[in-house]
Structures are given as C-alpha cells and as structure tokens.
Design brief:
The chain is mainly alpha-helical. The chain contains 16 helices and no strands.
C-alpha cells in the first residue's frame, strides 16, 4: 500500500512543483468543486465519469516505469492499489448517489487494467506534410482521441435539439486545431525553405486549412446528420482556426504567451468582428518575422538583401 501511495503521489506530482502549496491547494479545490458539480448535476453529467477510467487505461498503456515495476513480485497488486487511490473520489461519488452497480463495474474495470499488456498504437495521420508539426503534435498529445468526445457532444446536441452545444463543440475543435501552432519549427528550417517571405506563409496557410478541414469533416458530417443545413455555414467559419493559428504563430514566433492571449481574444470575440481586424496586422508581423529568419525583406521596406 505504501508503494501504491508513492506512485499516486508521482502521478499527481507532474501537475505541481515540489513545495508549491498554492498549486496543491488550487488542484484540490478544483477537484472538490468538480466532484460537487457532478454530484449536483449527476443525472445530466454522469456519463463524464467514463472518461476517468479511460484516462487511467491510457496512462497504464503509456507509462515508462512498467518494466521496472514488473520486477516486483506483486506488481499487479501495487498497480491496482495505485489506480484505486487515483480513482477513489469518483467511486465514492457513485456510491454516494446509490449507483452500486456502476461503482462495482468501475472497480472491476480498474482490476482488469493491471493485467493488460501495453500496446503502442500507431495511427496514420492524413495531414499535409507541408507542416509536419501537425503529425508530431497529434501524436505527442493524442489529440485525435478528443474527436470522439467532440462528435459525442454534437450527437447530444442533436438529441436535445441544442445547436448552441454543437457550436461549442465547433469552437473546441477549432482550439484543438490551433494546438499544433504552439509548436515551433527550428529557425534553420525557415531559412533553408524554398519559399521566401509571404510565399512561405501562404504555403503554411494552405496546409493548415487542408489539415483543419480534415479534422472538421467528421464533426461537420455529424452536425449535418443531426441538424441538416441549419447554420451549416458556420463550418466554413471554423476553417478560420487555421488562419488564426498560422498568423499568430509567426507573428509571435518567440512569444507563445502573447500568442495564447491573441488566440483567446479572437475566439471569444469572433462574433463581434472587432478582434478579426487584428488579422491584417498579424499577417504583416508574420511576414516580417519570417523574413527576419530568412535574412530577406520585401522591396516596400526599402531594405536590401545581405551580401
């Protein structure tokens, strides 16, 4: 049990720095608050509980210390203890609501996880190789697994005739499509690229729009099945996520924090039009930063190529 407690501590240790009591208090408060909200709205949101054992399964499949733990004579019991400790609040929530059958099934699922062998699933991504960071980011952060959840939100929106929930799923998908643009290629890659200046930016925009269209395709198809052509034009607006991601990436190439702020302002204020007026300025900054890495500027800036 002591080893299981230590492994649980390591599991949560990734979320805060050693001795950072403020972050620990915030995390505990957030968990208690989330459990309280689930308790109050259990009938509507109980399906969210399935995500937690799936998270444990994903963690078990990807953990790197499993070969070392296998040397322990009772490593499966240790793993079961760890997973039960990490999922104890959610099991207690089920018991508190009187769902003893689901609590038993939840616990049974946790008992099966330590017996499962690790499987490295390689998913071929159909993204354009003009921007290889889409491949690496989707594999690194397992972003593809967010699509079933987002499609499920659209289905729920269709069942309850709530198009606003579907629009929320579109917005969340747009944010997922912006995540690859928080990764940066090495500046030398920009320097040796065949395209120069705005041509390089345009190639990234085209690749981003193609990749974003691929991600939105299953969600858009689900929306069309559930709602028909009602507000279907919003799908074309969603392709703008790639434009926002590319322009803010190169406009703030060395400043990811201002990039995050700019993306959130544009997403939250898209229906007010005003934040969209920043895009031409970001376009100018993006070209300027690309040219700086390529040691070339446009003629209107009245600068010459370095000799």
């Amino acid at each position: 049990m002591q080893l299981s407690l230590y492994l649980s501590y390591i599991y949560y240790r990734r979320l805060f720095a050693k001795g950072d009591l403020l972050t620990i208090v915030v995390l505990i408060t957030a968990m208690v608050g989330a459990l309280y909200v689930l308790y109050l709205h259990y009938t509507s949101w109980s399906w969210l509980l399935i995500l937690f054992p799936l998270t444990t399964l994903s963690y078990h499949n990807g953990r790197e210390d499993l070969p070392l733990l296998c040397t322990h004579p009772h490593y499966r019991s240790v793993l079961l203890g760890e997973y039960c400790i990490e999922n104890l609040p959610f099991i207690l929530l089920l018991i508190g609501k009187g769902d003893y059958l689901w609590a038993a099934l939840y616990f049974l699922g946790l008992c099966l996880i330590p017996w499962l062998a690790q499987r490295q699933l390689t998913i071929p991504y159909p993204f354009s190789l003009s921007d290889p960071l889409w491949h690496t980011t989707f594999r690194k952060y397992k972003l593809l697994f967010s699509l079933p959840f987002l499609i499920g939100l659209v289905v729920i929106a269709g069942v309850y005739n709530n198009p606003n929930l579907a629009l929320f799923a579109f917005g969340a998908t747009g944010l997922v499509c912006c995540i690859p643009y928080f990764e940066r290629e090495h500046p030398s890659y920009i320097s040796i690229a065949a395209q120069r200046g705005k041509d390089y930016l345009h190639s990234q925009l085209i690749a981003g729009i193609k990749n974003t269209a691929l991600v939105f395709s299953p969600i858009g198809l689900t929306y069309f099945i559930c709602f028909g052509i009602d507000k279907i034009a919003v799908l074309f607006l969603c392709l703008g996520a790639a434009i926002v991601g590319v322009l803010t990436k190169y406009a703030f190439f060395n400043q990811p924090l201002p990039q995050s702020f700019a993306i959130m302002v544009i997403f939250l204020g898209v229906f007010y039009i005003v934040p969209l007026l920043l895009l031409p300025y970001f376009y100018f900054l993006a070209i300027k930063n690309i040219q700086k890495h390529q040691y070339v500027t446009d003629k209107p800036l009245r600068k010459e190529l370095p000799r």
